[in-house]
Structure formats: C-alpha cells, structure tokens
Amino acid sequence: MNEMEARPNRHFIAEQAKIFKALGHPSRLLMVQALRDGEKCVCDLQALIGADMSTVSRHLAVLREAGVVRSEKRGTNIYYALALSCLATFLQCTGTLIAERIRQKSALLGNDQDAT
Amino acid sequence: MNEMEARPNRHFIAEQAKIFKALGHPSRLLMVQALRDGEKCVCDLQALIGADMSTVSRHLAVLREAGVVRSEKRGTNIYYALALSCLATFLQCTGTLIAERIRQKSALLGNDQDAT
DNA sequence: TTCATATTTGGCAAAATAGCCAAACGATAT
DNA sequence: ATATCGTTTGGCTATTTTGCCAAATATGAA
Q1: What Å value separates CA B53 and C1' D9?
Q2: Strand-pair category, B69-74 with B40-41
Q3: Per-residue pLDDT, B8
Q4: Does the predicted TM-score (pTM) go above 0.85?
C-alpha cells in the first residue's frame, strides 16, 4: 500500500497542487496568516483584505475547497479556521527566508530598510 | 526590527504568495517532488513531465523566479536543484493529509482503493 | 410577517496563465 | 567557419482566474 508518497499519482499531485494554488494569492495568503491567531468571521477577513465581500467569499471558497481552512456557522456569522496544521511551520520558514532575501536585496541597493 | 513576520507588508506577502503560486501547478509540483532526490537537467524534467521543452523551461523559470529552485550550468546541461529546504517537510505533511483524505473519500464511496 | 444582517452565487469583463510552434541563443564539436 | 545539442524566448491562441455589481439565500430580530 501507499505507493503514492513515493511516486505520486495524478490525482494525488493535483490535490496537493490545489493547496499551493489556493495559498498562491496575496489576499488568500494574508487571510491564512491572520487565521493563525484563531478563527475569524468573513466580515473580519473582509476588513483585513479590503475587497468586496463577494470577492472575499470567493477567495475563502478556494481555500475551503483546497482543504486549507474549514468553516463553521455559529450564530449569525460563519467562522473560518485553519485546517492545515503544518502550514504554520512552513510559513515561518519561507517567511524567514524571504526576509533574508529582501534584506540582501536592500543591502545590494544600498537602502537600509525595505520593510515599507 | 523584523516586524514583517508579525504583520507582513505587501511586498513580503506578495513574495511569499509567489512561492505558493509557483508550486500550485501539477507539472511544477511534480518536478519539485522529483528534485527532492537531487538535481536534474531540464531534459530529465522534460522526460518526467512529457510536455514541450519550451513549456518545461517556462515552468522552471517560474520556480526559479520564486526562489523555489536554483539552476546551475555545468558542462552541456543546466541543472536544477531545490533551493527551499523546508519544503520537503511540508510536502510530506500535506502528502500524508491528502492520502488520508483520499482514503476517507474512497471509503465513503465504497471502493477500497483510489490509488490509480 | 417584514426587515435587516451576513454570506454566497450568477454573470460579466479584464487580466493572468498555459502550452505549443518557431526562432534565437550559447557552448561545444568538427 | 558550420553544425549540433540543450535550453530559453517571441508570439500566438485557448483557458483560467480575478473582481466587481447585482441578485439570491439564510438567519435572526422586531
């Protein structure tokens, strides 16, 4: 059994790519980053993103269908929460790496901060 | 210093999203998976993907510009290698998760394997 | 019931992406 | 010099994604 981790089949790879694709949009990634602090309702996330509510809802649908977040209706609102525990570690890692890259690039350009 | 990990700025988030976006395509993800075993030339990767050489080259450019892989010309060929060490762990984690999901879904449908 | 509030969905236009062919490029060999 | 090999780039079309508005839906309040 589970040959799929050694030599991933088409369905498996597609499913995994879907996760990455879902995270590969600034607005969606920002929402996911925010969800590390705990669940939020769509309205919270809209405030964070600043786009139309319908746009935010569509982004959330992408994340949900990829299995990155899960949603739960409670009271008047729908709350979204992270459903991919290992993501936090990876975000941390890429974050550090990118910070490093940005720092190097700034150094090359002669500025002392790029954190604008 | 490094406020960006707590409250990521636009540039930072865009850069991070670029990594995910790069990984968010089946062909690119497949190549990255293959690169876990060590560097490969474009021709190897083309054989893996089966698309036009130009297509493979463009996919590799996306990965390279996102900083997921790095390339090095050696002899006649150009070799691509992983440049994002922490990726392997995350792939492992999502892989396990997806395998789990696929298994559950298959169970629901009554089939005993979906690993086709 | 009607009204308001929170979220999703339909539909469309603009923008981005994917993939192929052909052409260009750079290095090595002849 | 020409030829060849491995790779990238130009240019094009087809497909997908994005984001807004408006409309639908669901749920709680009055």
Answers
A1: 12
A2: unpaired
A3: 59
A4: yes
